[in-house]
Amino acid sequence: MSLIHEIDFGTPASRSEKMITLTIDGNEVTVPEGTSIMRASMEAGIKVPKLCATDMVDAFGSCRLCLIEIEGRNGTPASCTTPAMDGLVVHTQTQRLKDIRKGVMELYISDHPLDCLTCAANGDCELQDMAGAVGLRDVRYGYQGDNHVFAKADNVANDRWLPKDESNPYFTYDPSKCIVCSRCVRACEEVQGTFALTIEGRGFSSRVSPGMHEHFIDSECVSCGACVQACPTATLTEKSVIQIGQPEHSKVTTCAYCGVGCSFKAEMRGEELVRMVPYKDGKANRGHSCVKGRFAYGYSTHKDRILNPMIREKISDPWREVSWDEAYKHVANEFRRIQYQYGRNSIGGITSSRCTNEETYLVQKLVRAGFGNNNVDTCARVCHSPTGYGLNKTFGTSAGTQDFDSVEHTDVVIVIGANPTDGHPVFASRLKKRLRKGAKLIVIDPRRIDLVRSPHVAASYHLPLRPGTNVAVVTSLSHVIVTEGLFDEKFIRERCDWDEFQDWAAFVSAPEHSPEAIEQLTGVPPQTLREAARLFATGGNGAIYYGLGVTEHSQGSTTVMAIANLAMATGNIGRKGVGVNPLRGQNNVQGSCDMGSFPHELPGYRHVSGEATRDIFDKLWGVKLQDEPGLRIPNMLDAAVDGTFKGIYIQGEDILQSDPDTKHVAAGLAAMECVVVHDLFLNETANYAHVFLPGSTFLEKDGTFTNAERRINRVRKVMSPKNGFADWEVTQKLAQTMGLNWNYTHPSQIMDEVALTTPSFAGVSYDLLEKEGSVQWPCNEKAPLGTPIMHIESFARGKGKFVRTEYVATDEKTGPRFPLLLTTGRILSQYNVGAQTRRTDNVVWHEEDRLEIHSHDAEQRGIRDGDWVRITSRSGETTLRALITDRVSPGVVYTTFHHPTTQANVITTDFTDWATNCPEYKVTAVQVGASNGPSDWQVKYDEQARQSRRIAHTLDAAE
Amino acid sequence: MDNENHRQSTADKLVYMANQIATFFHTQPKDEAVEGVAGHINNFWEPRMRTQLFAILEKNDNGLDPLVVEAASHIRRPGPVLA
Fold first, then answer.
1. What's the structural domain count of chain B?
2. Which CATH architecture has domain A19-133?
3. Which of A11, A116, A268, A474 could bond A562 through an S-S bridge, CB–CB 3.0 to 4.6 Å?
4. pTM for the whole structure
5. CA nearest A345 in B: which residue?
6. Within 10 Å of residue A111's Cβ, how many Cβ atoms?
């Protein structure tokens, strides 16, 4: 094992297809036109000394160290800013260059502390490396003059010196070590796109400044870590490196937060994680990260982690720690007893979108082969199940059509019902990069999300629709495109069913779908909608990115189909830069769906009624699978309340906090006789559990995650599971205890079984992943290296299907009692129910959920910023503090749901998507008023949670 | 049943869900509507949900959309409950 080092070519790669050849130090080098001489040298294995250049940002030419000589040209140009040209003869090492470089280094070092031995970057410092590379042996100027290094000179304070900024919880900024190479400033601009950093002052006074000479924590900094990664010295350093020291080995793995699925190097010292550094060859993130993946991994060693199995008779009892064997036996006995007593279909399981594909596959296999029913569901039920339904109906595949690289080729982007800068930050950075280069943006969202207006990015159009009117707006976009003749007839005739198109075109052309007609419902100015439609239809490559603001509605599936219609009508499918792109919520929500987590589908989205498919599994597993669909999560809870569903195995999901209508979820769980929670922490659902099986983190196991672009990425074990076993081992043990003959010794064998049984995964194996880094399914004989872009020649279903999408108002309506509409979302620093991020220093950015309310609505109710407010819906009420803002329109309020004390889902209703039962989180009619503090429910809930988390420790004999 | 915690009975919910499905298929071409509703319920509703639906169908004033009633003959009747 060793530390993985990607090659730093100094400047970004050129995209040109024209190749040129030059000679560097006697070597002939052929590179694409536009490549810098620095990069061309590195291609030939020649490292030109450099400080301000790194290939994550454009060349800058400030450090004057990378100078070269070119035959026939005067002077010593910088190799980073000088393009390679055909026939050049370049020398990187001459006496003249050596002298200049040494002189430059001498100047740098004369204003730099010489505490190398005790410096956190010792062993990983480019300044140190360059001093060595140029042979610096002496600094003639001394260190006593004007400097940024010493706090005092001759007992007089040094005005140029600044103390360390330790305000960010994850990294420090030590101005005394800064060489003003601007790499951090450029990383913040070019890679992250936040523009939080700048260089203040001029000449010798220049220094890096977050915001307007602020502390990092007070500036616009989003703590993505790009600047820390870019810094060549110890100026910006991870606090973990300062505390632990330099890592000694690393493994490439995949982030366990959002659906972008960034690749990281987990840099280790023994079994201790020193830091997570984004992996440059990661195809989803291309070397970038956000605050969660980069820094928020502290939960994995948090003291709240439960490490021993526990059981209890009643949920009012304290927990009792037991051996693993006792826990397995207890669960197996209980599940068999319940099935004997209440029937085979009285138990089920929930797979986790946070666990690996292999673990998910085993849980659904346990349910289908072990429980003998199809009562398995996954948290995709509450997020992207409408995506699966809608895209399958229209295109024939339940997944997005592109890879993330595709955004680099797009000309017009529609972002609808998604807030990428908070929910999918690394994708947002890639999108912003493209927008800064000229692509146009249309945002369809009730809230003025950051993308609408942020530094150097502005949406051409923002359609601030009323929550719940997506279908009306998207159908109306199509109305404009069809009635104004802007559709792509050639594409439609070739690729889609023409009769269906005509039927659909007649439907959307009806006057009631015109922007003018729907304005009353949606609140979107018709002229803006028309102009947005024209831009999308005529602006070049058009891509649509969407999130849970599309799916989590009673018409979620209809909106997905409306989006698919819009993409087909404008010919935006089947090539780079276009497509329909669901931004998946959780790291493995795509994978959990692929692996057969839905109650009606076997792995690979094949309906359980299909005899041929069942036959494959019947033979392999030696069982007879049921041909009837099982219960979905909301149906399980209904059946539980009805008394026909009595036991459940929940792996890595917190349905009590994340699912809507908390009281109903609680009633369902309370009605069951054996609730088994398999998780890292005693989550909210565990308050209702009878058995707790400790889980393992993504750092503690091997496996794969599949991200939003269908990319299967490896997860690699870097430390032993603190609880003793990876989650797949626990499921296997449970299955064995229930009498199943499973003998997997490594997750790769589980993937082999997936490949054997599932045509779209036929070519996938750990060997292939090792070789290729990652692949995107379908990966089989037809596409041995996977499929970055789908539906290129024809749609997976043959002809693309246009579906009529009539707007139907949700039954969740505002009225005199509940005049406001509540919608919910995420914030950058927190993740989902917060079980992980709340147990990290990320809480400094978001320690509580706040209710965003427009000043107009606040004033009417006498609410001031920061006041406690009570929010009431037909389902329940809760309290939280108000945040007065104009990001939401009057009549709309917004909150996040990261903290269990907020209990935002006490308020959300049990309305669901018509096709998939995906809950309508995004629309709840509410009233807001002043409050004195927590609601009765919150107080009662807190007490119940406290009681139910008690653990009775067995006393030592000595005591 | 504790009505505070279960504001709608499962039967009410099933009627509501079936009607939601019917509402979508009302907007689709006429010849697809009946098959559409029945197919959707066959594909996604677990047997005990369909059993409950048939029980609801037997009642007068069951609150079901006429399209659901029309589709009923195409909805698969669940077999005997498995032990």
1. 1
2. Roll (3.10)
3. A474
4. 0.93
5. B82
6. 20
